[in-house]
Amino acid sequence: MELLKIAQEWAKAEVFSTRFFIIFAFLFIAASTGFWQLGKTELAKAYIIPMLVAGSLLMTIGLGLFFTNKSRIGQFEKAYYQDASTFADSEMARVEGTLKEYTVVFKVVPIIIVIAALLIVFINTPTWRAIGITTIAMMIVILLIDGTAHARINAYYKQLITLIN
Length: 165
Known about the structure:
Elements: H1 2-38, H2 42-46, H3 48-82, H4 84-122, H5 126-164
């Protein structure tokens, strides 16, 4: 029963965390709208599309993760009561896979930030500058949210190991 409880607590925390993707998505979309309505300079107008794209991507990530984790809460209970040991094994495998994915994220996202920074330095046009700066901002948001999610799933993994062994 303890296993089910910590699995559901983890999923609820993930549901809460994914709301931040949605909040930042609205902020990016609001910024895009602001640049569209109020932007007078070429650089300000160049931010409209990159901010809208970044907001759309963050919204897609946020909603996808929100609904996935929201449905997991009920699925956890069903799977646990069907066969607790199978549930424990599948959770261990899923969490281990997710931890490996985070390793990739924490290597790839900084590389994307560096590439975007190089765009700003070497290509001095308003459009590419806006794309670079928006990309850096979006990647920082992803790192912030995924950093806390990684810590949370790592703690969950340690609890799983303790309960199963």
